[in-house]
Amino acid sequence: MDTTTKTRGETLKREIQTKIQTVLAEFADGTLSREQFHAIYAHYSAQLSFLESAINQDNDGKPASKPNETIAIRTSHMGKAIGMVIYHNKSGMFVETLGAFDVPPSRIAPTLNDFSTLMDTNKLIDRRVEKIGMKQWLLFAPGKTTTVVTLFQNEPSPHQNREIERLHHDFEVANQALLAGGRVDPSKLAYPFMVFIQQKLKRA
The domain containing residue 46 runs over which residues? Predict the structure, then answer.
């Protein structure tokens, strides 16, 4: 990708990110239904993923040695999001489970408790990645009102970690009023995460 094309791609990326912020605000204001939100968000998210892949791809124009073999290795070791749970920090309850999350609550409770203690003392909390099996990893991503725990097959890449954090941010912005109270109705929430989980399950 030449410099001009890359610059245009970055401009389009910013435009899509602005549109996503508008959709988040519209759902938060009650302008969009959940069905509308999920459809529009998925549309913009697909455009954003395509642009990011195009911008970040190798640009030297030289074919890799044994490309099929390299692709097979990359794919077999790629992190795949299997499922996730959303934990409401204020109530201490699990709000929703998306995908297949077969990790017992007792396994994630200690880390969630650590996060709660740090939140109570207003300390900065960074994401935490833990290996729990031969090919299973957990990503704990704390937010202002919720904590998201994502189960991956294979270790997630830094890019995947950042993607979960971006979706988590969008989740909290879209649902800020609904998450503010002590009780949360999962059926009223919008779930940007569905895009990521569905994409990874299709590639599994």
Answer: 3-62
